[in-house]
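Q: Sequence in, structure out?
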Amino acid sequence: MPKQEKGKSHSIRPVSRRPPSWCKYEPEEVEAFIMKLAKEGHNMSSIGTVLRDQYAIPLVKPLTGKSISQTLKEADLAPAMPEDLANLVKKAQRMAVHMDRNKKDSHNKRSMVMIEAKIHKLSRYYKREGAVQKNWKYVAKIASIT
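A: Exactly. Output:
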């Protein structure tokens, strides 16, 4: 994965670990919002975005003491596969469909190799951490294309 070395203009998380004084929600209310949004079909990152933009909750962990993923795991609403790995697998599937239609697209062939390398790297990490099963395996699509 390429390393970002240029530029520092980005948003920075708050330094304080305590909830902001202007956020008036109780931990139970925040957890209820998370459960409601998860049942509506939102993924974890979009739950955080909705809480930030619509409910003015900057970060969940300082308010509840738990992250969104921990809250969803306790309520048995967590997805079977971590969100970043699932997004990469979906991207690889879309890329494989594209590669089937466009056989001579060598630029996307390299992109497919890079995506699959990211999938293998993340899957090793998640197997080690226990987030996915030890016998989970991604079957590479690029081997069938070349």
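The two ends are 23 Å apart (CA to CA).
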